[in-house]
Amino acid sequence: MALRLYNTMSSRIEEFHPLRDNEVRMYACGPTVYDYGHIGNFRTFVAVDLLYRYFRQSGYGVRYVMNITDVDDKIIRNAARDGVSVQQYTARYEKAFVEDAAMINIEPPKLVRATENIPQMAEFVSRLVEKRLAYRADDGSYYFRIAKFPEYGKLSKKDFKGMLDGARVDVDEYDKDSARDFALWKAAKPDEASWDTPIGAGRPGWHLECSVMSMQELGESFDLHAGGEDLVFPHHENEIAQSESLTGKPFAHFWFHARFLLVEGEKMSKSSGNFFTLRDLVLKGHKPSSIRYLLTSVPYRNQLNFTFDGLKQAAVSVERLRNFRLRLSAGNFPAGATPEMQSLASETVDRMRAALDDDLNTAQAQGAIFEMVRQSNAAFDTDGIKQDDVAPLLAALAKFDEIFAVLDDDDGPKMKRVFEWASGEGREKDISNELHEAIQSGAQSDADIEEKIAQMKAARAARDFKASDVLRAELAEAGIIVEITKDGIRWRRK
RNA sequence: GGCGCGGUACCCAAGUGGUAAGGGAGAGGUCUGCAAAACCUUUAUGCGUCGGUUCGAUUCCGACCCGCGCCUCCA
Length: 494
What we know:
- It is a single chain.
- Strand 1 (about 5) and strand 2 (about 10-15) form a beta hairpin.
- The strands form 5 sheets. A 5-stranded parallel beta sheet has the order 5-4-3-11-12, with helices on both faces. Strands 6-7-8-10-9 form a 5-stranded antiparallel beta sheet. It has a 3-stranded mixed beta sheet with strand order 14-13-15.
- It has 3 domains: about 5-260, HUPs (Rossmann fold), CATH 3.40.50.620; about 265-405, Isoleucyl-tRNA Synthetase, Domain 1 (Orthogonal Bundle), CATH 1.10.730; about 445-494, no CATH class.
- It is of the alpha/beta class.
- The longest helix has 23 residues, at about 310-330.
- The two termini are about 40 Å apart.
- It is built from 16 helices and 17 strands.
- The protein binds one RNA strand through helix 1, helix 6, helix 9, helix 11 and helix 16.
């Protein structure tokens, strides 16, 4: 069964087939590195990550490129405010972005930077000018002539026909032939970062970098272009206009857009007080795995209401999955295999893949895995799982985690890094008690814990439950949960 | 105003022209020295409201109400 994806261009769900056999070339609009990434940014990046992972699981080789916008108005303004160069300013936020992405298990794409492709962008503009698709304004800026691209608006389904004849030109836009013409290149201004190029001194407009870098990395036509829903217009529309009018070829074949999320039922905004960076959430004591899980629990085209209650629920759900894996890995099973468990495992994989094939229906894929967990746990309780059933069940779980990436418990070390970062930034006051506790549980080394567990075992062998309970309480205090089962003692971090 | 999306149990959230996945939470129970984990039972005759089509609609159509998005370099 083939993957079916919603394509913004056609407004329909279509079967996905790469242009070249077995190779997917995809490009995602990445962050403008002027601040720490917020949870909304990461919803989009996680959605694209899921798609990337699913392409790979489906057997494709994938070339996945993401841009870093490291020059724009905000960056120039903030760098000037801080009295540092644009490069100095963006370096720390690009680093933060990479760290944050790793924290929620986003597989790294190839990153390309706007400022490292300035000559190519200038070259692109001059080719547009040669073809009379762009023009130079009096101040040295360059604009794309929208009237030259009749298909303008085809992605966002906007009709500009009435506006293309220049009848209603804003008085402010004195330099432009038509109000809708967009800037390709902005002429240098005093005290602003600029680059000397054959088309003059200045800096690129926002849309240019994505056309230039995507084509450079992936070719004039490639498979899929992704981003947040707000980018449909004008950003992606403009990319299409400048790219297709220049090459005469279709630009991206699939357009993939993730819907915005709500935070506590409202649009996220700084003024509403519901604006959170990823680091803010970790400082509040939430695990990266909970955040990732919550972000993946609603299909990417639906509005996701990101709430703290939801974060807690996500944490419990992840714990349930981790407990299940631990139980399978650590248990003793009778020899043999059962047909029921064998088929349960394979049906679960089929159901997950069918769900993901259906425009990445992550909620349904999660439903499938939980169904398997429940049935397996029930079988477990009645010795219905045999030795040879374990591997297929674990394999199904692994298949799930290749996409969702929440099972491995490395939350402790990750949270510790955020803790250290906040301390280094002098933000101790933002560190919650919950984060302190979480760090504590990660502070115990495995060896220390195993030592205590061994003592517990000895005490229990002597039927000294009192001593055993004291040890268990000590470990609980340190954030370690101990479980006594018929197969022995198991432990995990809270 | 133009274009588009959604309203499903206490919360989150799938889904289908034939009678409601899954997760969380609550209640009761099983297991257990006690915990924890796990399992079982239970919680929507109901899927925004009102009409229509149909043997039958939550699912299709229409109207209305509510929420949300884009149309302003915010993912």
